[in-house]
Amino acid sequence: MDDLKQKYLSQIADAGDESALEDIRLAAVGKKGEVALKMRELGKMTPEERQVAGPALNALKDEINSALAAKKAALGDAALDERLRSEWLDVTLPTRHQRQGSIHPVSQVTEELTAIFAEMGFSVAEGPRIDTDWYNFDALNIPGHHPARAEMDTFYMARGEGDDRAPHVLRTHTSPVQIRTMEAEGAPLRIICPGGVYRADYDQTHTPMFHQVEGLAIDKDLSMANLKWVLEEFFSAFFEIDGIKTRFRASHFPFTEPSAEVDIQCSWVDGQLRIGEGDGWMEVLGSGMVHPKVLQAGGIDPNEWQGFAFGMGIDRIAMLKYGIPDLRAFFDADLRWLRHYGFASLDQPNLHGGLSR
Ligand code: PHE
Q1: Where residue 356 falls among pLDDT bands split at 50, 70, 90?
Q2: 288 lines ligand 1 (CB under 6 A)
Q3: What is the atom index within ligand 1 of the atom nearest the CA of 285?
Q4: 258 CA to middle of ligand 1, Å?
Q5: Which ranges carry the Aminoacyl-transfer RNA synthetases class-II family profile domain (predicted)?
Q6: Ligand 1 centre from 283 Cα, in Å?
Q7: Pocket test for ligand 1, best of 255, 261, 285, 290 (most atoms within 8 A of CB)
């Protein structure tokens, strides 16, 4: 028994890993191990012999088992020490540089103006960019022969061979959303509609796709005075200049009567544009009182309701506010431009936090 004990304790001490240890366990105290074989021999012994050998064998078995457990724990500790030594991390290293995306000025300005008009009770309406000529023209009192159709440089969708219905158009303005919203919601109404519009035009201030925001308010007793107040409130908040002045110039749109083009006060100092000061004027939008025929086309009784509408270029006011010189660059997807003029994604515009970056 002493020999067995010596043999296994020294094997256990020498075991290099857990699988060697398991082999030793099976050979020593497993079901068919040497200690079990010895236990079987107990049956052939005299009772006196058995009284000595039985407890001794059990003690041997216990001793080997606890040597195995101790060695197993020691091997585990050694493995952990080795991992701690070889796997390490320098938490003082600088982080890897990660490029962040940015919010496009058109998206930012759309958020800004939505926040400002929301404060005045306007909700956001939307319509399709591909629309029928009825919504884009006829319903807005622009009949087929009207020169405004030609002036708009409209993109027409192609029809299939033999399909002679009037073609759909890429909307030339956001005004068709006036009709769609009147149809869907009736009066009274207070909505803005920001979105992309299309005209075949291309130079420093024109691109074939650009963005407008339509405004429409319909109620029992709205007038041009309400329109002027809403616009001046908007421009003061948007350009962050108190009491900005607007100038209304008589104009003509088929869908408003009377109509006005609206300028905001500005000046040029050393070739730099300053909004809200001086004695110059900058045209920023078209507007007027909604034409009775337009109300009718939208299913609203012009004898009961009236309202005002306006349409403004979003890209244009973005250029004015953030000093961006060329409209075409808005849509070039040039990363350097986007990083320079873009906004941080956490820079959420709202009236209370201030609208500037
Ligand atoms: N739809 C006009 C345009 O695109 C702008 C406008 C909208 C004018 C609403 C008056 C009223 O030029």
Answers
A1: very low
A2: yes
A3: 5
A4: 12
A5: 107-332
A6: 13
A7: 255
Residue ID of nearest Cα to ligand 1 atom 9: 310
**Residue in the structure block whose two tokens are 């800004």:** 112
User: What is the pLDDT averaged over residues 138-149?
Assistant: 87
- Work out the burial of residue 139: count CB atoms within 10 Å of its CB; fewer than 13 is exposed, 13-18 middle, 19 or more buried: buried
Global confidence as pTM: 0.73
| Annotated binding-site residue numbers for Mg(2+) | 257
Output the six-digit token pair for 354: 């201030």
pLDDT tens-place string over residues 238-289? 999 998 999 999 999 999 999 999 999 999 888 888 899 899 999 999 999 9
Closest residue by Cα to residue 177 from 230, 222, 227, 213:
213
Domain presence at residue 93: no
Q: How confident is the model at residue 352 (pLDDT cuts 50, 70, 90)?
A: low
Q: Strand 123-124 and strand 189-198: pairing?
A: parallel
CA distance 280 to 267: 5
Cβ atoms of 32 and 38 closer than 8 Å? no
The answer on 190 and 149 residing in a single domain is yes
Tokens coding 242: 């108190």
Q: What are the Cα distances from residue 343, in Å, to 102, 195, 210?
A: 5, 19, 19
Q: What's the domain count of the chain?
A: 2
Q: Print the domain residue range for 295.
A: 105-341
CA of residue 178 to ligand 1 center, whole Å: 11
| Final residue of a structural domain among 32, 51, 86 | 86
Question: Cβ(306)–Cβ(290) under 8 Å?
Answer: yes
